[in-house]
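Worked example 4.2. Below are the chains of a multi-component assembly; read each line carefully before continuing.
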Amino acid sequence: MKGYAGKYLIVDLTRGKTSVGRVDESFALNYIGGYGFGARMLYDMMPKPAEVDPFSPENVLIWWTGPLAGTISTAGNKYAVFAKSPLTGIFGFGISTGLFASEFKSAGWDGAVFTGRSEKPVYLTIDDENIELRSASRIWGRTTWETEEMIKEELGDESFTVASIGPAGERMVRLANITNERNRQVGRCGLGAVMGSKNLKAVAARGTKDVEVFDVEGLVRFIAELNERCQGPATEKYRVYGTPANILVHNKLGCLPSYNFQRGTFEYAEEVSGEMMLKTHVKKIIACAGCPIACDHVNQAREDHAGTVSSVDYESLELLGPNCGIRSLDTITKAVEICDTLGVDTISAGNVVGWAMECFEKGILTKEDTDGVELRFGSNEALLEALRRLCLKEGRLGMLLSEGVRRASQIVGKGSERFAMHCKGLEWAAYELRSLQTSTLGFAVSNRGADYLRSGSYQVDVKGQVDRLRLDKSRGKIVYDGENQYAVIDSLIICKFTRGVFKSMDELAKLYTLVTGLSMTGEQILKAGERIHNVARCFNVKCGVTRKDDYPPPRAFEDPLPDDVVKGAVIRREEYEEALDGYYECRGWSRDGIPLKRKLLELGLSKEAEEVGVEA
Amino acid sequence: MESRLRKIIVCDPDKCNGCRICEYICSFASEGVLNIKKSRIRVVRIEPFLNLAVACRKCEDPPCVKACPRDALTQKPSGIIVVDENKCNGCGWCVETCPFGVIRLHLDKRKVIICDYCEKHGYPRCVEYCPKEALKYVTLDQAARELSKKAVQTLLQELAAK
Amino acid sequence: MNSGWALNEVELELVGRFRELFKRKSMKISVEPGTSLLKIIMELGDAIGVDLRSEFIGPDGKPMDESSLIIVNGRVVDLTRISEQIVKPGDRIVLAPSVAGGG
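Applying the procedure described above to all three chains together yields the following structure tokens:
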């Protein structure tokens, strides 16, 4: 089998020892790579996840590329990281992109598994077969951007690529992320904090080997065609305005969260729109390695924060902008820089600060609680100060926010849990809940918690294919189909922006076969997607997840939207129950959300059937 | 051929976004493998904004040819530098001499590799595969003309905006 | 219906590339009673010399995955029905690119 390197690295951080594991053909065929490999391995390596403290040495940190990394495959240089999440307490997972994945594979490795905890700060270098744990005492405390530069300098070669954590990860801020090549992050689920808990500052990779593929001529021809399609209409939105194009569209649809999801429109949307940003702040659009689309809009701030440079996408822009009542692109560019360099997820950070602002305005948090910060919606200074303290766990406010919105709201109480916008502990991304209801179902049942990246179910809402202000049983099937497809995409791993470029699952399977030489049909690969999703769910069931956890926050049911275009929109509880039932039925799970034995056996998951599955 | 008539690979830094597809396709075009470390074209990214791909410029009176102590490098009339692998011992003098840093030592063979403009294929594959048309295969004269055009367009836009 | 409107006017708002095509953010246009959305789209396209229909409807006469959006009074229009949907005076029509999410 080609495409895969065929082996992964096992690093025992407690003893400072490394060993090698093998990737065999049946593992490859059943679980593809990326998400699939991570789910399978986390399930197997952590038999009793409910008993594992995410910050203890018993947590396992797993990195995987997929078969496409390092080949010329369209937007396929991606890697994924897994662990039990300190933010959600369940299956934790995030994907990033860039040259890092290509170098990692080119060094001859598909993945790396970290166990235990190093006594002192270290970083790992992967230089073909030469593996080394090096002291990170000199770089501990440095930002992600400084860390990349310092490691390259220390190793004496710029062609090392570095994935690292910032001060937030070191301090085990539950929103901490992992950054490679400055602007690309394994953003969600606080996996940077798991690295911090293991005293692992960074992974640096450099590879010199050919990445062997099965049919290189055929692959290069197919990629030429796919890359050509990437210049067509399916990806224009990403190329020109980037994802910030969503701001105005969502505003027109009443699904642009503002003021901590109290509203679905923002009166200053024009000022923070993708259109405005392109005109006034975007200095360069750059691409991840191997990507013909190029969506990364790098901003340069002007007057207020002259010289500040950061990469601003829709989610960051929205949650640090409208969701906090902020209308200044300079401030947002600065806010993203703070998050990226100190190392936290912009989505979760913007969400939890928005929640704190609502608390402050309602008198639930006082100036005493915020160490003097006037935490009001729309205050540029307050946003930046809150973010800085969050990242550094500074003072009462910093400590509180660094816990994430679920824990913070439990600490504060006084009804603030009602508007803590999360599911399973993961902060809600920038899609309004009541005016995109299929999307809301997709977020709420996701394996990661409130997650816009696991099913793409918002698409039927915004395309007008369903009544987005209501729910019914049929939505379950839409989410189910989307999740299975996305599980394949996240296992290959390929960028979701290419999804309009592939005409069918058969084309994805064809790409897989050209690279690996393993025969695969669209139907088979989709089945693998379903299998992968079920393994991750079984891990979550072991962590205690049941139907009760598959709901959006109370605001979705209790606070009708005030905005004109979607006035009064709210999720009706009985409709939601019906949609959730419909989803479980498609999945072959019990009414309580537990996979049925017979479904698991049908997917070839006998271990899960025995340990987790229930009878009908 | 006079150097002003030689076509070379030029890169527009405004369009180049650092995707490195040219490096991947070059390793395939040159050796039938996928490995950017074997690419004859090199992408340079200087954070946070600058991205540029550079390949052999077909210099007139090329310093690399002069530098080689074993006469392993010669320049064809078309401007392409040819490496005689029997003579090259990988000493790397040419690598150090190239003002553009586009000569590399091959990782396995320990001989130098230099862009041959996909001579057998007849057209540089990197230019064909560049998704943003940042790479062009043109004479320096044509490249200059494009630059003038762009400069005038920018000027006109600035005037119109006033 | 908003009483401030001239009898046969609708408001057109433009987002994303449509803003570039029309070189403006919004405009008011007059429509004859009983005009379909499709007819308006065709006429708008003719006025600027662009095949505007192809933004919404593919060569096979059906909406495409990457079809742009038409939003009338906050509702996303089902693109299979734009030849039947009649525009009323005072309607607010938005032309927008489809939504881009997830990386």
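Take a moment to check your reading of the output against the notes. Residues 37-48 of chain C form the longest helix (12 residues). The CA atoms of residues 3 and 34 of chain C lie 19 Å apart.
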